[in-house]
Amino acid sequence: MIRVKFLPSNKMVEVPAGTTILQAAIAAGVQVESTCGGKGTCGKCLVQLSPEKLSPPSPVEKKFLSQAQLSAGWVLACQRMLQEDTVVNLREQKDAYDRKIGFNPVVEQTSVTPSVRKYLVSLPKPSTEEQTPDWERLLSALDRPGIRFSRPVAAYLPRVLRRSNFQVTAVLDGDTLLAVEPGDTLGRCYGLAVDIGTTTVVVYLLDLNKGTVVASGAVTNPQNAFGADVIARITHAASGPEGLHQLQEKVVGGLNDVIARLCHEHDVRPEEIYQAVVVGNTTMSHLFLGIDPTYLAPAPFIPVFRQAVEVEARELGLNILATGKVIVLPNVAGYVGSDTVGVMLAAGVDRLRGINLIIDIGTNGEIVLVGRGRILTCSTAAGPAFEGAEIKYGMRAAEGAIEGVRISADVELDVIAGGKPRGICGSGLIDAIAEMYKAGVLDSSGRLASADAQLQKLPPLVRKRLRKEGRGMEFVLVWGTDSATGEDIVLTQKDVRELQLAKGAIMAGARILLREMGVGPEDIDQVLLAGAFGNFIKKESALGIGLLPPVPLQRIVAIGNAAGDGAKMALLSTVERERAVNLARRAEHIELSNTKEFQQEFVKSLSFSRTGK
Amino acid sequence: MIRVKFLPSNKMVEVPAGTTILQAAIAAGVQVESTCGGKGTCGKCLVQLSPEKLSPPSPVEKKFLSQAQLSAGWVLACQRMLQEDTVVNLREQKDAYDRKIGFNPVVEQTSVTPSVRKYLVSLPKPSTEEQTPDWERLLSALDRPGIRFSRPVAAYLPRVLRRSNFQVTAVLDGDTLLAVEPGDTLGRCYGLAVDIGTTTVVVYLLDLNKGTVVASGAVTNPQNAFGADVIARITHAASGPEGLHQLQEKVVGGLNDVIARLCHEHDVRPEEIYQAVVVGNTTMSHLFLGIDPTYLAPAPFIPVFRQAVEVEARELGLNILATGKVIVLPNVAGYVGSDTVGVMLAAGVDRLRGINLIIDIGTNGEIVLVGRGRILTCSTAAGPAFEGAEIKYGMRAAEGAIEGVRISADVELDVIAGGKPRGICGSGLIDAIAEMYKAGVLDSSGRLASADAQLQKLPPLVRKRLRKEGRGMEFVLVWGTDSATGEDIVLTQKDVRELQLAKGAIMAGARILLREMGVGPEDIDQVLLAGAFGNFIKKESALGIGLLPPVPLQRIVAIGNAAGDGAKMALLSTVERERAVNLARRAEHIELSNTKEFQQEFVKSLSFSRTGK
Fold first, then answer.
1. A256 — alpha (psi -120 to 50), left (phi > 0) or beta?
2. Lowest-pLDDT range, A134-143, A458-467, B240-249, B525-534?
3. What is the mean pLDDT of residues B227-247?
4. Which pTM value belongs to this model?
5. What's the confidence (pLDDT) of residue B364?
6. Do B158 and A304 touch (CB under 8 A)?
7. Predicted confidence (pLDDT) per residue in A287-338, tens digit
8. How confident is the model at residue B612 (pLDDT cuts 50, 70, 90)?
9. pLDDT attached to residue B72
10. Residues of B in contact with A126 (CB under 8 A)
11. Stretch B376-403: mean pLDDT, rounded?
């Protein structure tokens, strides 16, 4: 066994010699970015070792790391097997999520009628003349029919009754008695709304009496260690029950960390959180519940369940009241999950007029078309390009990410949290491509300029940024002198192609849905952009590269983290929860891989041009 | 830490120095008889150490052990704190339960309509045209409405479906899907009927297809280590959550041992056992379910619940199918438990004609009086005298126990499994007292003969057996030359008083119920004796000492382990289970401690005489 210490957290772990740094990081519970899950194909899992003792780089490391990086001790965590006690320096990754999530102090549109209710009751005391058992005594004082017996509550009931002189607060969720608390605790009643993203997990702590958000917090989905996208996660789960169990534990562990922090900061005890409403894509829902997602990956993409699921918190290990209900909202299909149902609920699609197109661009791209009394859904393999994966200098929307680009005489950048840039996030990428297209750095087919005629039209400082790289071209966004790492930050021809494939898939999906409904892009009354991403994307840029159908700018509305808002609504109101179930049931899913026209529409949608022709 | 080895099992345990032998035995999971739970008041926890190194006896040991025993190395396990590695020799206690339980191969009177049912189904295979989730696919093939989602089954469903080419056997219990098994397993379907006695736990393995008992097994209730009677157990549970947890674990551990053995011997996998129906007294039901029984002990004797309880096996740690239901039949009151409800069910009290008195003599004495459209119950503090506790040479009905006594010219004995006697069990005790009364060794007030006039009437060999002991008399049943231990086995005046109190309590309870119903002992049409004890008691002796009301001999019927039979019936038939619930609901419980006449009736019932006047 050897010891590994991770800086800056100082977390230690003991592992057998021969363990990779990535595996050790997983064992230690520290976050190392990895989008391929250790296959050596993404080059994202950079960590720094002491350069003195460093053995020569592997071919994979040579491929992904510059000489400067190698000499500074940077290695790929998946490539290094540990043979002795080692100190590993992690890249600083102060996540900017809290800024991005936003903070909605009141969910105003929802009436506060949660299924969790508290009742203060006084019980008559027993005597030899009146020997009613404690459980029946409580039920008769509660006087609400249909309450089922709860072994865990019965287990401690007699002491609570006698300690509080038979005056107690009963916590009910529907016909389930969740808890009996001594004395009067009516004032304290909390719930969680949870949005489990493939990349980020967001938790909202709500006061169920007031209907307000007390606090929110986010954490990188710790399943990330097993790969960035759902396919990598499914592959790990398919490796056997142990893999599935790991993934389930990881995400619950991440949630418990956030819950512990929020509880601590806001003086709430976890046992005062009586319910959690959870949304996520279909894979995340399966993994969170420990349900085998194997057959979601290959065609015909079959999920195990799609209805809403209710389980006790203790069954999942979620650190709220052990008997509290965890409610996972329903899925629509294998790649349209409860997060999309949350979006539909928050957007109120059953009340919208006209034709509305809703796009949630995340690791996948889910599309909902609402109109003519129908709700159509599809999902597109948008790929994780928008979250920075598969892009050479791509990164998540964290400190140091380029989030805005302007090109005139030269390139100007906006960087998250200021400072020197480290890479580029999704909104920055769209901006960069749109500006590059507008400036003539690339043409409508997505080719970077290389012909003299093209180059001559560019301003000199911009022209200088275009250079040959291997068989293609690349565009230098940031010169090494201005970057955080000292390296040039570039967009390669391959990066452009990745974005092109992603946006082509989304547009093609939208077109298929429009066709199914019998309307055209010109009939769209409103485009709603869901997800944190929608808040930060520049609408002009998205229109400029044909990522969105050609509608007037003012008809594009960013609706924020609508998935999380939907979860909040379902937590605060049984009516809204029932609506979510109905929306999922009403939604008609179009499986694009089963649609003859998809390839055709996809090819048509690849071109960078406002009309998306 | 020191090591303790227990012979003859060779079980080893490491414990801190200063641990008593009794605590070490509990830790090692070996059985040491103890009726006081280590308080030093019962003198039952005899174990043998190597005499050479033995330190002087404690005052408690001096009180309970003869000089011969002390010199042979016998000590009391609760009195000896271990300071070094030790070998402990346990008394041989080959239990005779298997003989006593009887073996009923078919529960003939019950129709076989269990709530567990298996269905063989073939599912259509999915395609991109037909992407129904696995769960819905299964439900639609099953075509039974109202089946609730089961996370544990969903978790493994996709693999089972695909491994067995979408042909599976679904196991349903009501509207709960318990399991999905690959291929056709219709032929294998098992259930358990369990009777948790304070002293002995009995398990029946039933074939739910055929309605037959495959096997049965019994084990001493391992909670015994914490005391022989329910009050000792409650006291331990009341000491805190850890105590309650220990008791719950102990009894489940004992059950799991029997289940493992029965499964092994009969080629049944624990996962093929889909349901368990459990009966026990109210305290045992609470402890089995891990529900705090503290307030059952002091007046007003309040249980936490009395209705039937259903929980998943995994919640209790019972080693049958994890999702299988464990159903504890309803209790009537704090001291009339589901075992008595099982007796009522097996006796068919809702179909009996006339006036029927049912007596279940165990650690407590539960009495049911059925007639005039009513079911009356009471429980009497019969005390554990009938199970050998509080009786100087009392023991359970195991090998070496005197179970029959005849007195004419001298004393003649029947001993379980033949061989030399070690002590006397309940049926032997009743027999002994009845014969002693008949022979004039004691009078109707229970006093052992001491006056010359009395002694002169006795045969010489019998007279010789009466001798002074302290301030009272005692009667030598077995001379040391004929006993297994080399000591005299005696019945003391105190032993006679114990039995007198027990039988007085039972008769007084019966009289109170008769009065409540408005009938007299002469109106009784039938006396049913439940429990293994009832099978072995000599009816003449029981009548002879006034333990039973004066009815003609042929009206006394032993109905065997009716509590276990009731559990079997409820397992095999949902109709019977519903009947049990109704019987419990109909039963009117009379709390004797609340009855003015009880003291009066009790005093009247103490006398040894056939009329019980």
1. alpha
2. B525-534
3. 93
4. 0.81
5. 77
6. yes
7. 999 999 999 999 899 999 999 999 999 999 999 999 999 999 999 999 999 9
8. very low
9. 78
10. 300, 302
11. 83
B305–A135 C-beta distance less than 8 A = yes
pLDDT value of residue A102: 34
Nearest CB neighbour to B158, from listed A132, A156, A292: A292
Query: How many beta-carbon pairs below 8 A join chains A and B?
Result: 130
What six digits make up the tokens of A349? Answer: 């699609």
The packing angle between helices B426-439 and B493-517, to 10°, is 100
- The answer to whether residues B335 and B379 touch, using CB atoms and an 8 Å cutoff, is yes
Name the strand (E) or helix (H) holding A26.
Answer: helix A21-28
Percent of chain A whose pLDDT exceeds 70: 95
Counting DSSP H helices and E strands in chain A, the numbers are 20, 26
* pLDDT tens figures, B555-565: 888 888 899 99
* Mean pLDDT score, A213-240: 92
Q: How far apart are CA A115 and CA A571, in angstroms?
A: 8
Q: Average pLDDT over chain A, rounded to whole? A: 89
Q: Do B133 and A591 touch (CB under 8 A)?
A: no
> Exposed, middle or buried, B299 (CB in 10 Å: 0-12/13-18/19+)?
middle
Q: How far is CA B503 from CA B546, B548, B606, in A?
A: 8, 8, 7
Out of B127, B162, B302, the one facing A131 most closely (by C-beta) is: B302
Question: In chain A, what residues touch B594 (CB-CB under 8 Å)?
Answer: 128-129
Q: Which of A127, A131, A334 sits opposite B334 (nearest CB)?
A: A131
Residue A594 has pLDDT above 70, yes or no: yes
Average pLDDT value for residue range A480-508 = 92
CA-based angle A310:A312:A318, to the nearest 5?
110
Determine how β-strand A356-361 pairs with β-strand B466-469.
Answer: unpaired
Amino acid at B66: S
ipTM exceeding 0.90, yes/no: no
Give every CB contact of residue B94 below 8 A, 6+ residues apart in sequence: B398, B399, B417
Does the pLDDT of residue B375 top 80, yes or no? yes
Residue A594: closest CA among chain B residues belongs to which residue? B128
Spatial neighbors of A540 by CB under 8 A, at least 6 apart, are: A434, A553
CA–CA distance, A237 with B501 (Å, rounded to integer): 66
Structure tokens at A132: 């009613």
Cα(A223)–Cα(B246) distance, rounded to whole angstroms?
A: 37
Sheet holding B11-15, edge to edge: B11-15, B2-7, B86-90, B46-48, B74-76
d(Cα B175, Cα B250) in Å, to the nearest integer?
32
Q: Render the burial of A327-356: b for 16+ CB within 10 Å, e for the rest.
A: bbbbbbbbbbbbbbbbbbbbbebeebeebb
- Whether residues B136 and A306 touch (CB distance < 8 A) is answered with yes
- The residues that bridge with A201 in the sheet, in sequence order, are A196, A219
Nearest to B221 by CA among B263, B188, B249, B262: B249
Q: Which residues of A touch B299 (CB under 8 A)?
A: 128
**Tokens 């304290």 belong to residue:** A188
Q: Which two tokens stand for residue B266?
A: 């009969």
- What is the C-alpha to C-alpha distance for residues A237 and A240, in angstroms, rounded to an integer? 6
**pLDDT value of residue A395:** 87
Give the per-residue pLDDT at A577: 95
A136·B306 Cβ contact <8 A: yes
Q: How far is A34 from chain B (nearest CA, A)?
A: 27
CA distances from residue A174 to A167, A570, A580, A591 in whole angstroms, order as listed: 22, 14, 18, 36
> CA nearest B328 in A: which residue?
A151
- Chain B nearest-CA residue for A128: B300
Q: Tell me the C-alpha distance between B218 and B254, whole Å.
A: 9
As a whole number, mean pLDDT of residues A1-30 equals 85
Q: How many CB atoms lie within 10 A of CB B447?
A: 16
- What pLDDT score does A51 carry? 77
